[in-house]
Design goal:
two-stranded antiparallel sheet; 5 helices; mainly alpha; 90 residues
Amino acid sequence: MAHRGPALLGHIVFFGDQELVDLSELLARWGFETPICISASYERAVFGILYDHIELNNQAVPNLLPSDIDDVVGFSRILGWVSEWSGLVD
């Protein structure tokens, strides 16, 4: 999922370059030459999905429950960010 426009700007305001990982070297070891490949951590990606759906589009996130993803995503971290930043969003 590529983020553009207001969603990307919202994520940058909250995170800056935190929770981003450069995967270029890993992909090169697997034989994929890319100029640069930056990926968000799982938690930042889930936060982005929640932010896009709830804050920007005012709709529920379809088929996403914390219990579905908590084994791979630190959902408590995401809830902490929501709590910390809730006063920053109009």
